[in-house]
User: Fold these one by one.
Assistant:
Number 1:
Amino acid sequence: MQREFTISTTRHQELIDITGEAIKAVRDSGIKDGFCFVYIPHATAGVILNESADPNIKTDFLNALNRAILEHANYLHDRIDNNASAHIKSAIIGSSATIPIKNGNLQLGTWQAIMFCEFDGPRSSRHIIIKVCEDK
Amino acid sequence: MQREFTISTTRHQELIDITGEAIKAVRDSGIKDGFCFVYIPHATAGVILNESADPNIKTDFLNALNRAILEHANYLHDRIDNNASAHIKSAIIGSSATIPIKNGNLQLGTWQAIMFCEFDGPRSSRHIIIKVCEDK
Amino acid sequence: MQREFTISTTRHQELIDITGEAIKAVRDSGIKDGFCFVYIPHATAGVILNESADPNIKTDFLNALNRAILEHANYLHDRIDNNASAHIKSAIIGSSATIPIKNGNLQLGTWQAIMFCEFDGPRSSRHIIIKVCEDK
């Protein structure tokens, strides 16, 4: 079972909670035991699992990442397209997250949410692919 | 085949080798070819594959990560719960690792071990989920 | 369907585009819908998905990572084997990437390529495992 959808982002960098879409995909699949695979087909975005309840964590995450990987640092790619930092962050963070499914529910911990990471927004059309797979 | 277990951690930050648990899960499953999926349902912990033989690597890894992502840096979340750095590290490191299985064995390289990453310990009850899946 | 092959690297650190090998593995498998799983059984290397079209991104990525995780910083492991930084980068970047397959094609975005990350080269023999799995 595969679900593909698009979101738009409104800031240069932001985290967007997409847990609800994954829960819906799992429910619609009818699958009780298996995996939920969330995939981002972009090279300047990513996906993480972390706390969404306190929105400050999103700000702290983006600020800390910007300190570790500077927005601008004489990157060669910035001469062509001014988004080298977004590429680097995307590569480090990763393009997918996999969550086990048990008894029809995502086995997310209490404080885990699935969050799309925009590193080069705003963008009108960011694609997200969710596959729900049943255990053999 | 799913195996869920709990470990306790004794330090604020530490790496704990859980390769033995994955080997046991694969053996108990009887599966010869497939995947071993290790999942951590926590937002202040993670899992990596790396060398466990020289314990110094664990220290070097945690120290380097603490330099890249400072323990305290006026994080907003620290006003609520003093563990923003642990959330950020967990998001960067990731909550799962997948290892292929061939002829009944994990295809770990000579220097690869599966290590639970505690970023906000000590904790008495950290959950680990291991799923072993057979190739179709 | 599993494909294992070896590459050699020529620099201390470099990114090598291996997308063609994954495309070939998917084509050879005949699988139309499923997953392509790329796994690196090494503790001083990794794999990322990112842009390969502008080779400058590879340079920017490696330079930024070297600023975040210093090549040498009195690492304890460097007294035994002078490659602690490579271990740390490998642990952060990760040992696998998973790409969905739809209608016989990898669902890579326009700017996504699969790149092997050498952090401790040059090495004459780096192993890469590609598994192609069909949806149930």
Number 2:
Amino acid sequence: MTNIGIGMIGGGYMGKAHSVALNAVGAVFDTGLRPVCEMICTTTEAGAAEKARTFDFHRSTANWKVLVEDPKVEAVYIASPQETHLEIALAAFALGKPVFCEKPLGATLEDSRAMAAEAEKAGVTNMMGFNYIRTPASQLAREIIASGEIGEVTYFRGEHTEDFFSDPESPATWRTTGRSNGTMGDLAPHMINAALGLIGPVSSLIADIETVHKERPGENGREAVTNDDQGQFLCRFENGAMGMLYFSRIATGRKMGYIYEVFGTKGAIRFDQEDQNALWLYNGDAKPDREGFTKILTGPRHPDYLAFCQGPGHGTGYQDQIIIEAKDFLQAIETGQAVWPTFQDGLMVHEVVEACWRSHEQKRWVSISDL
Amino acid sequence: MTNIGIGMIGGGYMGKAHSVALNAVGAVFDTGLRPVCEMICTTTEAGAAEKARTFDFHRSTANWKVLVEDPKVEAVYIASPQETHLEIALAAFALGKPVFCEKPLGATLEDSRAMAAEAEKAGVTNMMGFNYIRTPASQLAREIIASGEIGEVTYFRGEHTEDFFSDPESPATWRTTGRSNGTMGDLAPHMINAALGLIGPVSSLIADIETVHKERPGENGREAVTNDDQGQFLCRFENGAMGMLYFSRIATGRKMGYIYEVFGTKGAIRFDQEDQNALWLYNGDAKPDREGFTKILTGPRHPDYLAFCQGPGHGTGYQDQIIIEAKDFLQAIETGQAVWPTFQDGLMVHEVVEACWRSHEQKRWVSISDL
Amino acid sequence: MTNIGIGMIGGGYMGKAHSVALNAVGAVFDTGLRPVCEMICTTTEAGAAEKARTFDFHRSTANWKVLVEDPKVEAVYIASPQETHLEIALAAFALGKPVFCEKPLGATLEDSRAMAAEAEKAGVTNMMGFNYIRTPASQLAREIIASGEIGEVTYFRGEHTEDFFSDPESPATWRTTGRSNGTMGDLAPHMINAALGLIGPVSSLIADIETVHKERPGENGREAVTNDDQGQFLCRFENGAMGMLYFSRIATGRKMGYIYEVFGTKGAIRFDQEDQNALWLYNGDAKPDREGFTKILTGPRHPDYLAFCQGPGHGTGYQDQIIIEAKDFLQAIETGQAVWPTFQDGLMVHEVVEACWRSHEQKRWVSISDL
Amino acid sequence: MTNIGIGMIGGGYMGKAHSVALNAVGAVFDTGLRPVCEMICTTTEAGAAEKARTFDFHRSTANWKVLVEDPKVEAVYIASPQETHLEIALAAFALGKPVFCEKPLGATLEDSRAMAAEAEKAGVTNMMGFNYIRTPASQLAREIIASGEIGEVTYFRGEHTEDFFSDPESPATWRTTGRSNGTMGDLAPHMINAALGLIGPVSSLIADIETVHKERPGENGREAVTNDDQGQFLCRFENGAMGMLYFSRIATGRKMGYIYEVFGTKGAIRFDQEDQNALWLYNGDAKPDREGFTKILTGPRHPDYLAFCQGPGHGTGYQDQIIIEAKDFLQAIETGQAVWPTFQDGLMVHEVVEACWRSHEQKRWVSISDL
């Protein structure tokens, strides 16, 4: 058992989630590397000190460079705004320090390309945080599809839908300006990553994106909403499968609509994050009068479940996905084996998002290879 | 109570369903007009006689003209192959006889246009058979949307998916040749009709259509499949709502996937024909900590349910939809009030299908008004 | 094909359902015997004439003896109040005419015993109407259990729950007086019949029965409720299985709670009439990491489904159960083979109800054999 | 922020779960008292040292007295076998140290009585670990019932069902001997505690308990199973509600069947731990044609959810229940306010279990007050 000092940049929602995970992961998984919460960085010294106290970090700073350069910080978590990702990651790579980066990778496609390139050049562990894909159920789905258990995939449908802006009178916030804070920038990457991980690369797509509520109440009257509420695209994957993805922040009634359905020549899969402990599997080889979708409750035989619970059906939750991420990151560092999704995978997600915008603006099919 | 003589053309699957419905509808609904099963027409005299016996028709014929012209036949059901629809309908209209036509309307867009035009010219009752839309649950969905109960519709997703050809080794049949027997020709019209009925006219769309299994085992070795297995399109409705529809006969595991979801600014709806006695409604005005989708079981307070059962939750089934169609057709004849969907509505469905093909072939967005 | 004249006694809810079924059954099933709706009997001549017109019967009467004795009436449906069942059935049996009797069998245990004894003595077709058990899904459940597919049954839970009296201020009606109109008399027989049919005879039980709302608003102020709102019992079946049944008319939110769950040594079954087209089956022999309950949608491979629909998942409804009953009754007459449940089975249900009352009153376990 | 030293007795399944919780709870909840994992005790020195390393405890011991008496251990977790609970708890109380005790309270009713009495006498914080009841959904259910939102409760049904012994050929283990390791001793307490917490005290009951598989394969051939596989009871609660509870370890297909349904005069509730992030609520005051069960996904507005996640529907899991327990225990110590369920509540659960055994053996209704 060896300790590894962790530096956390960002003390918001995801900063908290990763901090809880780092506190818990060693007892949950008995990892070879034990994380030591060395330093946390937020925007003010006082705020950082408070977060250090709350999240059990030894030290704090308001200067991320201090954190990255601190000799006791041996690996860096980036949970700060997208605009900061590039510079931080490059600084860490320059020092040969592993980096875990919250999705999306960079603020622009150029940033993402630079980050993926530098990650490869540096040759150090790099990993993306697309947490939902780490549920035992979604890991199982990946295994089932990859093994050919449902045959050749003929169709994929995915959505990432929530409803936090479904009320047209919900006030404007930082989320209603800036392309990267819109639905395509903020929500879509999760499900695009899932699609790429479950089915494989997208070859071409045609997208439609929309700002449904063009104004919202602000502090000084009506404010313009400058990013998108919903978007969708049809696509073909490189393996020939047909696909469709939809993303929305105005999907009234959907709280965590991370949903996918996969049809194959021998079976099918359904998953809905709102009931994240079940994977629905249709086995085309079942006796004809006994066929139907089987609701498989995740359990100790499924990926990463046993560490949380010995009994099937007891269930894991949102925070547990983050703990699994922490375990995977530590393991990647320890073994030197990259764990999906890496920065390169984060870049592929970004490319799909970019292709959607181009397709939407030009109203035509776009090939990913033409980007 | 007045009798009305019915002529049934077609003795197959739908011919049987409509015959059962005509036998039952009077006792179920106590309609003003009572149908008398006067004559049935199939392709052979012997076959027609047998069907007459089985389905309780007085007489039979192998010549549809005999049926249409028979003075005791006062209204005509068309449940024969698509290619025959035009000629039969025009003959009936020429005699001023009401016509009920199974979906789709005509075998070609030109046929459908002619049928809709002649229906209008003749001024007699004409009605399309898109049976699924007549469940109490889907009728309720139409009412809810039309009333504004879920606000402005922002998104619609629909699918008609089955899996009768999901096995690549299922043999070729008459269903695997002829565009009108493919997925876009045979399955898509149901859900397109639903979309038009629930949301309103489509203004533009972009489609992708595919024959996944290009050969199937036939009597003489491998046979080419000349029509489509699956298709999908993105669209915008005239009222501005964004939409997406998907159709498949290879959607492994789906038996009767007539599914739609509607998001509105004040609520949402979900429906799945595989559980046809429930409509899921999300009421955006609910108390914030009590909000969620409510599973409404259809009951006597919902459209057409009470005639089948006094208690809620007891459920109606496939055959009952056809009985409701019969009641509506009889009522339309009796009152002279057209009942949705008419031939004109059938034509609008056909136009969307045609636009899909054009969009698919030209790989571009197509406006319905440009057809 | 031979015609058989039917006499229907009762023009209420069940009288209508059976009349619709008799009109439809020949076209649905192509039965060997074709029912002719010969005569209907209700309490007044005018009412009966009106029902004859509505339900398509040739003649009508207000005197059930006239109906039973009519030479063209060759089989009798009893859908009149329980108190009348005994006398009618005996009159029909005396004339050697087959009898279909709506549940429950007799108004008292003595009545039921006499009816079962006379049915046996007469040696003519006799059948009980416990309609819900005739859904394709519940027929499939019986087959699965009987075949040993889920192994030895270790536990059965059943309920028949509705909520038509859940509101304490719902007015008193004829349903709130008379033991036979209470929950144990009116609702319990359905699920007891299911338990006996699925698992086998009950050997002993202990029951608890309750009138929760002892008064309800009536025409002259508060009126006493003289029968039971809910009841439940623990039991052992003769095959050793442990069981539990619950019945209620005040189960808020339950519309048609005809629900059972069966645990066996090799599998399990779940069914809920509110989603009557699905049977949930757990196969204990499944691969350990793929196990779970499979939602089997009823289809053409399951009992009696194909007559209604060629495609799986299209669904049958309440009225279809009654049509299946009609087919089974006609078939029993034609073949001379008794179809479950007969009057003898109806008597066994009544015995369990009686044992419940005795157990409740004496607050002790009661053996069915001690009745 | 004050530290509090924790001593953990037991390093098994629950020992691990509580250790993970103690590592995480401070970052999740920002508790006033911060737990310091001071010492862990298991049966061997080497094993304890290993657990200390894995679970992040400072020190270890194989002697629980050393742990309890250690001055840095300021509060004690008991997660060791039931037979040890009494002695440990009394030793801790004698030193005025708060105790958290895993369910069930004592190995015998006498033990439980002594523990509850000593807890009261000592006047220090004492709390039971019935973890499942701490999900946000079940906490919400308690609030809803307590507030009268569903009116007067008329019926309660609960079950705790799993299937780890459903295969008759599963080998005998320590779980198959000893009453306290049987279904009534080990599983029943969870759901009995839920029933008491949701509805209130039970007044009388009648139970049936069974060892279905009386022998299982052991190391030396067939071994006798000396405890129970399944049990059930009918009951009345002190507030008059009728109830029924069922417990099984052979309920084929049930993985975590912690299920309850509550009918009230104004509404109803359903919960199933296998989908622990949803509570189903039927609101009897809904518009009649919009009524149905609403699937409420837990979210930030519900108890204890926000600490884990800002968005609704993201979900908590098994481990999170234990973290909530830790928070509640720390808060109880900090504030001096007892948190349900205390040892007194654990005793009431034990009394119901004892009454079940007495009722089963004497085959009669038993009043809790007569124990």
